[in-house]
Amino acid sequence: MILVSSCLAGLKVRYNGTHCLDEKVAKLIEEKKAVAVCPEVLGGLSTPREPAEIIGGDGNDVLDGKAKVVTENGKDVTEHFLRGAYATLEVAKKVGATLVVLKENSPSCGSTMVYSGEFNGQKIAGDGVTSALLKRNGFKVISEEQFVKELS
């Protein structure tokens, strides 16, 4: 079973109430080969919600208590992101995920890049909170861009 970001499956769960539909991901859902999950929604955040970025590092640093996730207006939402990451980990275990495809650049789901924490559009190398936790627990996590390359 493949675990995928809900926004890639066409669900309107992104911070701004939109989705990032990926037709290949949607086909996997339709064929019952994938299960969709949104860590931020699982963590208790609403849709839409304020944009958030990791301040002081990446998802690994958040897991280690060295960084936090903060909204553009300065609200600390770290606990929501941690709660969502652990809930996603439970789903991955429950469905026996052999691959996890998450939305790149997200503070939850980024698997190679996340936004810098300065809300200026700049990106840095690193994992989102959920991606970092899943990788620490032995799951293969890739972005939607890597997924497309793997299918080619």
Structure, explained:
This protein has six helices and eight strands; from the N terminus they run βαβαβαβαβββαβα. It is an alpha/beta fold and 152 residues long. It has one domain (2-151). Strands 2-1-5-8 form a four-stranded parallel β-sheet, with helices on both faces. Helix 4 packs across helix 5 (129-136). The longest helix has 18 residues, at 78-95. The protein is globular. InterPro entries: 2-thiour_desulf.
What would a concise description of this structure say?
The protein is an alpha/beta fold. It has 6 helices and 8 strands; from the N terminus they run βαβαβαβαβββαβα.
Q: Profile the largest sheet.
A: 4 strands, parallel
Number of domains: 1
Number of strands: 8
Amino-to-carboxy terminus distance: 19 Å
The side-by-side strand order for the widest beta sheet comes to 2-1-5-8
Instruction: Name the shape in a single word.
Output: globular
Alpha carbon gyration radius: 14 Å
Q: Treating each run of at least 4 consecutive H or I residues as one helix, how many helices?
A: 6
Uncertain regions: pLDDT < 50 for 5+ in a row?
A: none
Classify the helix fraction into a percent range.
25-40%
The overall pLDDT, averaged over residues, is 96
Fraction of residues in β-strands = 15-25%
Order of helices and strands: EHEHEHEHEEEHEH
